[in-house]
Design goal:
With about 475 residues, the chain is an alpha/beta fold. About 30% of the residues lie in helices and about 20% in strands. The protein contains 13 helices and 20 strands. The chain has helices at about 20-25, 35-50, 70-75, 85-95, 120-130, 160-165, 175-190, 225-235, 255-275, 305-315, 330, 365-370, 460-465, and strands spanning about 5, 10-15, 15-20, 30-35, 55-60, 80-85, 150, 170-175, 195-200, 240-245, 285, 320-325, 335-345, 350-355, 375, 385-390, 400-410, 415-420, 440-445, 450-455. The strands form three sheets. Strands 4, 13, 14, 15, 16, 17, 18, 19 and 20 form a nine-stranded mixed beta sheet that branches. An eight-stranded parallel beta barrel has the order 5-6-7-8-9-10-11-12, surrounded by five helices. Strand 16 and strand 17 form a beta hairpin. The longest helix is centred in the middle third of the chain and has 20 residues, at about 255-275. Pathway: Amino-acid biosynthesis; L-lysine biosynthesis via DAP pathway; L-lysine from DL-2,6-diaminopimelate: step 1/1. Its EC number is 4.1.1.20. One of its GO terms (cellular component) is chloroplast. One of its GO terms (molecular function) is diaminopimelate decarboxylase activity. Belongs to the Orn/Lys/Arg decarboxylase class-II family. LysA subfamily.
């Protein structure tokens, strides 16, 4: 069951609500429209796929969509959170994700903001005097998933790492300097940090180069030939670091599960090597990256179950806890960007549908040449002319397009036009370029009511940055 469907009379519905009716009621500007039940169904699909794999973690990648209401909903459904900045961690805490679940909470006056390299040692003395907490693992509910938070990234800064250490977040080690910073953060926070080594397995994800991460020349992770250096470094810091697992993330929009399996085979071999040196590692984190059917072509793409099943035996054979970090496959298909047609024009050999939405609200087509399916929300007259159009916005860039060479009926001014699969990496990558302020977000709830879940940004918001200057 999918949330967006066309009725036989040609109207687009979100669950049981006509999108045209929603357009008449909400602000007259582009807006994002989500289905809350679809978010639930997507999480349930992962949970069902993970049955039989105890202590697994669905770490939702917040970068895909950071709407607070959506985060709260995902947290209630049992997801953990995957973070790439201190602000994403703060937002996760705000949404109620509880990385300290099951741990003794250790309070220490936060030194963040006052920190200079010379002060680290004195702070360390101070926090040690208060004592160190036990290194209890987070509790796991009987559905097998936890609210665990995981901090990722190739350029994590010290302030953010200190917050992560204080909050008991799992941290993925990305480089030599990252490890040094994590050790410093542990000293400042007075807490041992649970770390996973982010290994770059050099498996080709077969995706656009901008979203490939796990190949050997990528800026992310550590190469296997350096593994011993990292193991020695962890051994040298028994009070600051506890190695709990290994992580990899291959890339995004992956549509063949064999790719995940190839990486998992390499990863369990690394885990065997790591365990052979006396480390008790329990977690295999295979990252995110599962693709979705952007083309709406009816092609059969791998499901969460296909993904989990392809690594299940490997995970069980080593008695590991599986961590996955889905973003797109949890949230992309739950949302459309809803636009209005401003007009239709022709230049040279090109026909254009100009809409009010643009690359400012949704940049994926401009940035990655990504295809996102486009359709009108209302039926067109029986013999309406169908032409090939580029669907473009009003922004002053020739890169401002939402779709190229789409066969569409010629729409009247004001017609609703949606860009599908806009739940992931659309609003979270939106900008205010040309002062097209970020759009509002709405969702359709289980009972069919439509609720605003984020205000649209306004001109006044922009002016506020200059107040008092
Ligand atoms: N884990 C890590 C370490 C990641 O870097 C990412 C995404 C994810 C998990 C989630 O991946 P997903 O399941 O969403 O594919 N802006 C691009 C996608 C960038 C993905 C960055 N990393 C796009 O719009 O396609």
């Amino acid at each position: 069951q999918h949330c967006f469907t066309k009725s036989p009379d040609g109207f687009l519905y979100c669950e049981d609500t006509k999108v045209q009716d929603i357009m008449e009621k909400v602000e007259k500007r582009p807006f994002y429209l989500y289905s809350k039940p679809q978010i639930t169904r997507n999480v349930e699909a992962y949970k069902e796929a993970l049955e039989g794999l105890k202590n697994s973690i669905i770490g939702y990648a917040i970068k895909a969509n950071n709407n607070l209401k959506i985060l709260q909903h995902l947290r209630k459904l049992g997801c953990g959170a995957v973070l790439v900045s201190g602000n994403e961690l703060k937002l996760a805490l705000h949404a109620g994700f509880d990385p300290t679940k099951g741990r003794t909470i250790y309070t220490v006056l936060s030194p963040v903001g006052l920190l200079s390299p010379d002060s680290v040692e004195s702070l360390t003395g101070f926090t040690k005097a208060l004592g160190r907490v036990g290194d209890k693992s987070p509790t796991v509910d009987n559905t097998g998933v936890t609210g665990q938070c995981i901090f990722n990234g190739n350029g994590k800064i010290l302030e953010d790492l200190i917050l992560a250490a204080q909050e008991g977040v799992f941290v993925n080690v990305d480089s030599e300097f990252d490890l040094e910073n994590i050790v410093t953060a542990a000293k400042v926070a007075g807490r041992k940090v649970n770390v996973l080594l982010r290994i770059n397995p050099d498996v080709d994800p077969q995706v656009h180069p901008y979203v490939a991460t796990g190949n050997k020349n990528s800026k992310f992770g550590i190469r296997n030939e350096k593994l011993q250096w990292f193991l020695d470094a962890v051994k040298a810091h028994p009070n600051e670091l506890k190695l709990v697992g290994a992580h990899c993330h291959l890339g995004s929009t992956i549509t063949k599960v064999d790719i995940f399996r190839d990486a998992a085979v390499l990863m369990v071999n690394y885990i065997d090597e790591i365990r052979a040196q006396g480390f008790e590692v329990d977690y295999l984190n295979i990252g995110g990256g599962l693709g979705i059917d952007y083309y709406h072509s009816g092609a059969v793409l791998p499901t969460p179950r296909d993904l989990i099943d392809t690594v299940r035996e490997l995970v069980l054979s080593r008695n590991l806890n599986l961590v996955i970090e889905p973003g797109r496959s949890l949230i992309a298909n739950t949302c459309c960007l809803v636009n209005r047609v401003t007009g239709v024009k022709t230049n040279g050999t090109k026909n254009f549908i100009v809409i009010d939405g643009s690359m400012a609200e949704l940049i994926r087509p401009s940035l990655y040449d990504a295809y996102q399916h486009i359709e009108l929300v209302s039926p067109t007259p029986p013999h309406a002319e169908v032409s090939t159009f580029d669907v473009v916005g009003p922004v002053c860039e020739s890169a401002d397009f939402l779709g190229k060479e789409r066969e569409l009926p010629t729409p009247a001014k004001g017609t609703g036009l949606v860009v599908h699969d806009a739940g992931a990496y659309c609003m979270s990558m939106a900008s205010t370029y040309n002062l097209k302020m970020r759009p509002p977000e709405y969702w359709v709830e289980e009972d069919g009511s439509v609720t605003r879940i984020r205000h649209g940004e306004t001109f006044e918001d922009h002016i506020r940055f200059f107040e008092g200057l």
